Amino acid sequence: MESTRSARRPYRLGIAAVCVLALVASACGSTAESQPASLALADEPTPTVAPTTSTTTTSTIAPTTSTTTTSTIAPDPLRTWVATAKDEVTHLVAYDAPDGNIVPMEFLVPNPHQFGGPLTLMVTDGQPGDAWVEVQLPVRPNGQVGWIDTSKYDIAGTRVRAEVNLTEHRVTVYDGEEIIAETDAVVGKSASPTPLGTFSIAAKRKNPPEESYIGPWALALSAYSEVYETFSGGIPVIAIHGTNRPDQVGQSLSNGCVRIPNDVVTFLAENVPLGAPVTISA
After folding, report:
1. Cα separation, 101 vs 199, whole angstroms
2. Which tens digit of pLDDT belongs to each residue from 226-269?
3. What is the pTM assigned to this prediction?
């Protein structure tokens, strides 16, 4: 099914910043066959400063409604299919072709996700009704794909997507052709750039009070740092999250993740579904 919304003004704000999450190995010698890595944030606290003045355009958010996908699926270039694992799935198993060989992975990807919520994957080939669909795998290296058996997943569509422009330090979120959120952003510094490509929202984590320096939410992507092998003792996964430094708008300061103002990341956590695509370009 797909989310639909009535027309509303976009949520806009001119402040943002960036950081990294880390997949920390939970035990020495752990393998994909034995247990998953565990997720931990790998950003260092920064001194809190008085926020800069900004102008916010208030957004009116209409209640979402749902429609059921029928056997006849009209083409829609703005729609992305999303595969959500059923309860019976304990971890991700993907194949190099329908009924092919299992794709080896660096670590086990569990269901539910370490941050909570079901394992959710962006479909790159196929649609509801197909016995197999190709999906992007939330593992390293970035951009890997594999095929999954759809009898173990629910397939639904979304027209919500995000675009991150590194040159403009800008994040824009769309529902179809409508802009629903827009903000300036701080992106990865030259030594640790934010990776380019189209990824997806893999998980949403509500941050504990002791990690308030990264805001109320972290939206983990299906992307990893392409510079750091490890970070803070783990495998660094890229995320969009909040910040206690809204004064750093428009700068390239992070280890690769995207920090945005806390009210904006809360809006995204509430309105951008798991599996929605995030395209990062220079």
Report:
1. 24
2. 999 988 888 899 999 998 999 997 899 999 999 999 999 999 99
3. 0.82
- State the DSSP H helix or E strand holding residue 268, giving kind and residue range, or none if neither: helix 262-271
51-76 pLDDT tens trace = 444 433 333 233 444 433 434 688 89
Distances from the Cα of 227 to the Cα of 138, 166, 169, 231, 244, angstroms: 17, 16, 20, 10, 25
Pick the CATH number of 78-158 from 2.40.160, 3.40.50, 3.40.30, 2.30.30: 2.30.30
Report the candidate in 169, 172, 185 with the shortest Cα–Cα distance to residue 245. 185
Which of 185, 257, 174 is closest to 221 using CA atoms?
A: 257
CB 140 within 8 A of CB 227: no
Task: Give residues with Cβ within 8 angstroms of 247, minimum separation 6.
Answer: 15, 49, 50, 51, 52
User: 9, 11, 1: which is closest to 270 by C-alpha?
Assistant: 11
What are the sequence ranges of the domains in the chain? Answer: 11-43+159-281, 78-158
Element (H, E) at 8: none
Strands (E), the chain: 2-4, 11-13, 20-24, 38-41, 65-67, 80-85, 120-125, 132-136, 145-149, 153-158, 160-165, 170-175, 178-184, 187-188, 197-206, 217-224, 234-241, 252-254, 258-259, 277-281
**Considering only CA atoms, which of 255, 139, 253, 243 is closest in space to residue 200?**
139
Measured distance CA(12)–CA(59) in Å, rounded: 8
Do 11-43+159-281 and 78-158 share a fold? no
Half-sphere exposure of 91 (CA within 13 A, CB side): 15
Domain covering 11-43+159-281, topology = L,D-transpeptidase catalytic domain-like (2.40.440)
